[in-house]
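Sharing in case it's useful to others searching the archive later.

Someone asked me privately for the predicted structure of DNA helicase, so I'm posting the question and my answer publicly. Question first, with the sequence:
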Amino acid sequence: MSNKEYITIVIDASRSMDTKSVSGSDETDFQLALKFAMNLLNKQLLKNRKSDRYALIVYTPADVQFYYQNTPVTFSRVKEFYELLVRAHSESMDTKGDFNILHALADSLENQIANKFIRSVFIVTNGVGSVNDDNIDLDKLRNISENYSVTTNLLLLENEDNKETKQYFEELAETFDGRFNVFPFEEFANNGPPLKLIGPRCMTDCTLSFVQGDSNDIHLAVQVYPAIKSQSQVHGHEYLQDPQSKEISRVKRQTKYYIKGNTDIANEFFESGKNNEENSEDDKEYVKDSEYSYGFKYSQRNVVALLPELEEAATLETTPGINIMGFIDMKKLPVAYLTDEPAFVIPGAKSDSENKVAFNSFVQSLIDLKRAAIVRYVQKETYEVQVCCALAQRFQIGDNWGHGLILHRLAMKEDEKIGKFPEFKSGEDELDSVMEKFVASKKLTNDITEPDSLSNLKLGLLESKPFTEKGSSKTSLENMLLSSCPSTKRFNYYVEKILYKSLNEESLTDFVSQDQFIEKYLTSDEKHTLLNIDNIFDVKGESLFENRDSAAEAALRSAFEIKFTMQAKPSRKKRKTDSVFGAEHDEQFDEYFDIDEILAG
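And my answer, the predicted structure tokens:
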């Protein structure tokens, strides 16, 4: 299944879009449609997927314009689309023309590009104009939609003047066999992001067995698939801009190698971060590029060969597989240190029924015993050996349930050295009990989940959905916890906000260089931002909990608070002095001032 996308955006730029259909909104229908289109393109910019393609159709009663380039989306291209829409709307005449919104729909379906794509069309209109299908071959459009698997989504800004248009499109959608959807714009825009059905690639096709077993032991054919991928912040290349000439140059880095005159490999390995200031340039002898050859580079966690010949000679022979080394009680498993991305283990797709029954029985036995398996996992031939825990889970796919394992890499001692985890040592019993009380007091609403079962929108997805329903009091906890890291999500949202507001500016760099830019353009219209969260325990989420135990929260906060003690400065005895200016001073002022007291106070 292809993951490439071809999305066509159809925007109604007619004068009828100057009305305000959304109650309580200060923006016109055209402004809402323009913002929707630009945000859709800006999200694509942040994804930076070179294989996706976007097209724009601008509809006015006098003309229907189609814009497409067989290139990835760029910021200059988004700005060009923005200017095209604004210009078309400003030049549109308030008269009836030869075209209606159905002509724009026909153009979006007829202009299909070659190759395999996930194809979709978004049409934003308030439906005020008339709809006439006399000169449109609807059967041809249905065939195109079926042959190319195009999903069309009509986002209708509802008002009193478009009831006939809405009824027409709802009846038309029924003839497209589920590939045509009509949504209220406000509902679509305020709901969650779309869910896309993708074909995951198998990471490993191997055997699950014991480490030192004979041929009569467990040998189950399994497959490993990626599970959860953490969301990363928006990032890209680094550039420098000259403040005078405004020229932009890309940041380049150059690596230099040197030999220290007095070195100890043990100290360099374990204490590389210490005494950096004491390493003078006189103690370094730089090596010319022509005088060295690549060998190995090492860190506290790994040693990597830099040449294929060295890598082949230095790599131990390993074969793909999952080998069970033992079992551990779930209560004793250090779940807090499971930070790597997990993977799913399920029976082999081409395995027989006996293999699947044996695998399901093994998983169910782990669930009943409340145990996790400690396994040795090798993803591919000659890959590194990972020591992982295998957690038994039941998965809900549609109306059916299945069994599987979740692989997590266990934290090792070397992880402590690189600052990935705090020091491995037993915590204070008193602090642990305070933390337990805090966690117990934060009981979430709708907490009816089972620890050994997974049932959520993404895992049980059987077909793509244009949006996800907004969370409410009836939303299950598993679906509520699908959102990504709040800080990462907010950071990416700010970047999208900057991109959209900069489209009306001549220069993006001048726009972001304005004084008090954050206060003016990012946080002025928001109640809660990344800048007004008081502390880590206050996430402005009181509605998520059944009750709020302020005593438990205060106790934990006091345990983690850093208390500063200021050294009291001894008071100096004031001496009697004669008045210089004739008049005697009153009791409100000292006879002389101490600069140290002023600076300290």
